[in-house]
Amino acid sequence: MQQLDGLGYRGKTIVVTGGASGMGEATVRILGELGAKVHIVDIQQPKVPHESFQRCDLSDFDQVRAAAEALKALAPIHFVFPCAGLPPHVKGPLYCMRVNYIGTRLFIEALLPALADGAGIALISSDAAMGWQGNLAQCLEMLAISDPDEAYAWCEADPDKRVRDGYTSSKEMLVVWVQHAAVKLGLERRVRLNAIGPCPTRTAFMDEQEKLLPEGFLDAWPYPSLGRIATAEDQAWPLILLNSPLNAAVTGSFLYTDQGFASGVFTGAIDPGFMTGGRA
Known about the structure:
By secondary structure, this protein is an alpha/beta fold. The chain has one domain: 3-Layer(aba) Sandwich (Rossmann fold), CATH 3.40.50.720. The strands form 2 sheets. It has a 7-stranded parallel sheet with strand order 3-2-1-4-5-6-9, with helices on both faces. Helix 3 links the parallel strand 4 and strand 5. Helix 1 packs across helix 10 and helix 2 packs parallel to helix 3.
């Protein structure tokens, strides 16, 4: 990919969480082809080529801190791609929130001292977070809790209201955190922080989710831009492009990479009724 050197990744030090599978693995593979030095953090051993590997369970806050501390030896780190995440059916909604938002935020904040000024951070949220504005007040309440144990205790105090299915709420929290934290990071260190919001994407994650969905649910999903379910690589590219230093003016953004689904629903071009058994 010599012709893409202008994206700014060749020779740069990069950390990717969740780099052993799915969108994270696709991100690692592409970054490697772009000449980057990629270091992976995951709960499982990666198969894709990489510079180093830190085994870490994002639900274990001590492990998260230890992994971030070990990675500080790589400083300066130029880019971070937090791609790790899981659905609620694995270990329940509270565990989902613990990994997807609390553990992810802790890892990024713990790693910040090792980031170069002007670094880029681009993470994966979901178009499941498209209703974040309606839950903003509650999200801001949780956002104000910086200690991970306190944040988890806050969730435990009223899980039905504060956590719900775990997946939607954790992805909403990522969106709100990205938009809020990007301002301070930019003003103090010119670090950019952004997120993408994928639609259903064909990964091992979705293979497991599909077992719990009504028959034909994914077939009925509208795919305006591709005409099919997205692949992990389809999502990795916009994540990488978003984090490129060429996007110097872009921070605090939530980029829908969902084939037009959210914007279609917002404007009435797509009827979301198929999701609850109505017309598609």
